[in-house]
Give the backbone structure.
Amino acid sequence: MRILFEVLERDRFEIYDPCIPAAAETAKIIGASEGHDTVRILKFCPATLQVWDMTQELYDEYRGSFDGTAPLWVKLQPDFEDRAAEEIREAKQWQRHMKSFSRAA
């Protein structure tokens, strides 16, 4: 089994083979997807020609930023805006927390 990316190329979708086996670590698969306009991440079995969409599974494992630099496949997820807003809210809370230490000193 191997990993394939469905990528956006100009005005159409293409399948890109990053030459990653399906047994690769999640971080390696996610990292490889960031260099392309990946829309979906697929697991492909050449013996049976079956394809499984692993995008949601990998989205749940994604630990990167949810800002404008997030990969396209992350931005396309239904709850991306919610996660991005939560990340901003947590960053602001952390800044307020750190400022409270500087005022106390």
Observations:
- Helices lie at 26-33, 55-61, 72-75, 80-104.
- The radius of gyration is 18 Å.
- The chain has a mean pLDDT of 89.
